[in-house]
Amino acid sequence: MTEEFQDSDRKDWDTYFMDIAYMVSTRSRCPRRHVGTVLVQGKKLLGTAYNGAPMGVADCSEDGCMIVEELEMTQVGDTERMVKKQRCIRTIHAEQNLLLFTDRIDREGSTVYVTDQPCWTCANMLANSGVREIVYHRAYAKDSDKVISLMRLKGIVFRNLAHYEPPAQAGMNVIS
């Protein structure tokens, strides 16, 4: 006797594509954060990318992170204050690699699934790339308010899958 397949056992499309993004992130050798992203048109997967050093160049796990500190004025309530941010500049971000290795015509009207909310630079690039929707899982508080505002201004759907659970084999501790 065969059991009939239940649709309730089948993953929804958001979970399916985010699972793929997380599995792609396992290719990253960054000790601070593994990020993966996928480009989807309709239900067709068009490209994947992860964060890492340029091809043929030693990565952070081999030569260490190249951390730079930036100061940024932020508004906290009625008070402006200077906030220090640290960023690794050795790594090309997953979203940047995705844009480098996919065609604009494929990105027009497409959806990007990314494990982490894009930083300000990646958000700017995605805003100009032709995508209509960005779906992410983990928040990136350093740039969140600016990025959300930009997406709203550009009319790009920007969704957080807050209740999503990544595949166990894709887990890592994230350094803020």
UniProtKB/TrEMBL annotation:
<dbReference type="Pfam" id="PF00383">
    <property type="entry name" value="dCMP_cyt_deam_1"/>
</dbReference>
<feature type="domain" description="CMP/dCMP-type deaminase">
    <location>
        <begin position="12"/>
        <end position="158"/>
    </location>
</feature>
<dbReference type="InterPro" id="IPR016473">
    <property type="entry name" value="dCMP_deaminase"/>
</dbReference>
<dbReference type="GO" id="GO:0004132">
    <property type="term" value="F:dCMP deaminase activity"/>
</dbReference>
<dbReference type="GO" id="GO:0005737">
    <property type="term" value="C:cytoplasm"/>
</dbReference>
<feature type="binding site">
    <location>
        <position position="122"/>
    </location>
    <ligand>
        <name>Zn(2+)</name>
    </ligand>
</feature>
<feature type="binding site">
    <location>
        <position position="93"/>
    </location>
    <ligand>
        <name>Zn(2+)</name>
    </ligand>
</feature>
<keyword id="KW-0862">Zinc</keyword>
<feature type="active site" description="Proton donor">
    <location>
        <position position="95"/>
    </location>
</feature>
<keyword id="KW-0479">Metal-binding</keyword>
<keyword id="KW-0378">Hydrolase</keyword>
<dbReference type="InterPro" id="IPR016193">
    <property type="entry name" value="Cytidine_deaminase-like"/>
</dbReference>
<dbReference type="InterPro" id="IPR035105">
    <property type="entry name" value="Deoxycytidylate_deaminase_dom"/>
</dbReference>
<dbReference type="InterPro" id="IPR002125">
    <property type="entry name" value="CMP_dCMP_dom"/>
</dbReference>
<comment type="similarity">
    <text>Belongs to the cytidine and deoxycytidylate deaminase family.</text>
</comment>
<dbReference type="InterPro" id="IPR016192">
    <property type="entry name" value="APOBEC/CMP_deaminase_Zn-bd"/>
</dbReference>
<feature type="binding site">
    <location>
        <position position="119"/>
    </location>
    <ligand>
        <name>Zn(2+)</name>
    </ligand>
</feature>
<dbReference type="GO" id="GO:0008270">
    <property type="term" value="F:zinc ion binding"/>
</dbReference>
<dbReference type="InterPro" id="IPR015517">
    <property type="entry name" value="dCMP_deaminase-rel"/>
</dbReference>
<protein>
    <submittedName>
        <fullName>CMP deaminase</fullName>
    </submittedName>
</protein>
<dbReference type="GO" id="GO:0006220">
    <property type="term" value="P:pyrimidine nucleotide metabolic process"/>
</dbReference>
